[in-house]
Design a protein that fits this description.
Elements: H1 23-36, E1 56-66, E2 72-80, E3 87-95, E4 98-106, E5 111-114, H2 117-122, E6 126-133, E7 150-157, E8 167-169, H3 174-177, E9 178-180, E10 183-192, E11 200-208, E12 213-221, E13 226-234, E14 238-243, E15 249-258, E16 264-274, E17 280-283, E18 286-288, H4 290-295, H5 314-320
Antiparallel strand pairs: 1-2, 1-6, 2-5, 2-7, 3-4, 3-6, 7-8, 9-16, 10-15, 10-18, 11-14, 11-16, 12-13, 12-15, 16-17
């Protein structure tokens, strides 16, 4: 169906829960989401370090198309059903502002795989965000724990003469990885934008399943100097991948993505790609609550190597954002 999705809203009661706690808190988070989202809405999925299986997975990007330097990207998707009964999985796609849904049944104890998922399953090109769910309502009302399945998404460059290993896209955690009002930080950013030049290039990824919002992305070097800033319009049901400008050469820096006080139902990440081989990895952010930032009076970017503290006005501290805790004591 080519219709906009209306029922999927991030559970506000879950936005502040620390999912890095042990299983009891994880189960409690799932209960709260179920309690406050009595619709086929967003529930807590597994964290990146979790060994748990759930009956839903969120992947911020699946892709098929050309990239920089002659690269050609395809996405492999695998779904494994470890249960004793077949499982019907809903494939829900955020693509160019629309929400699409299709169903596929995975036999008991089997794995299904698509080598070029976006083209083979959907007949599409470009970028999209993917939500997989085996809901009891279309699986004979089985308990959700009996519908748990494993899934993986891997993106690779088939256009590289030297080949490319698959870049794993993590299944994100709705409680921890969806942005809400929190500020996202990526430390240790490296970027040399020219394809074929030794080094790496960095892309900013955003998958927004909520209302259209504007995010502010700012890149700083280790001295706290702003090297790049862009206001990014993240439209509903779009998966964006925005390359940092080619003219930037940065061996180490910090990228800050700020929702500027809005509550944003989006996943923010970076992909870091080797310029020569197009091998890469996906990184999720570390985040800080805006309430904590305000409580601490704001902090400023400062490398341990910058020496004595420099006077900073409140206006400057606000403009330069708050990522100092990655480099030292704020």
């Amino acid at each position: 169906a080519n219709t906009e999705e209306t029922g999927h809203v991030l559970c506000p009661a879950c936005a502040h829960i620390n999912t890095r706690k042990e299983g009891s808190m994880r189960a409690y988070g799932r209960f709260l989401c179920l309690l406050f989202s009595l619709s086929p809405g967003l529930l807590a999925s597994t964290s990146l370090a979790s060994t748990y299986l759930f009956n839903f997975h969120y992947f911020p990007i699946v892709a098929f198309g050309a990239g920089k330097g002659g690269s050609q990207w395809v996405t492999e998707v695998s779904i494994t059903n470890p249960q004793r009964v077949p499982i019907t999985v809903a494939h829900r796609l955020s693509y160019n502002g629309y929400y699409y849904e299709r169903f596929d049944t995975v036999p008991a104890g089997k794995t299904v795989r698509w080598d070029n998922y976006l083209q083979q399953f959907w007949g599409l090109t470009g970028n999209a965000g993917l939500y997989l769910k085996a809901d009891p309502s279309f699986n004979g009302n089985l308990d959700s724990d009996c519908l748990a399945f494993a899934a993986s998404v891997k993106i690779s460059n088939v256009g590289s003469p030297s080949g490319s290993f698959n870049m794993d896209v993590p299944s994100v955690d709705v409680l921890a990885d969806f942005l809400g009002r929190w500020v996202a930080y990526f430390s240790g950013i490296r970027h040399f934008g020219q394809a074929g030049v030794s080094g790496y290039r960095t892309n900013v990824g955003i998958w927004n399943i909520g209302s259209t919002a504007t995010l502010r992305a700012t890149l700083y070097d280790n001295e706290g100097n702003m090297r790049w800033q862009q206001y990014i319009t993240a439209e509903r049901h779009k998966s964006l991948l925005i390359p940092l400008p080619d003219g930037i050469s940065l061996d180490s820096g910090t990228l800050v993505v700020d929702p500027m006080g809005q509550f944003v139902d989006a996943v923010v990440y970076v992909s870091v790609v080797d310029n020569k081989t197009s091998d890469g990895l996906v990184r999720t952010p570390q985040t800080q609550s805006p309430d904590d930032i305000a409580k601490c009076g704001g902090v400023r970017l400062q490398s341990l190597a910058t020496g004595p503290e420099r006077p900073t006005t409140p206006a400057e501290a606000d403009r330069r954002l708050e990522a100092v805790f990655f480099f030292g004591n704020p």
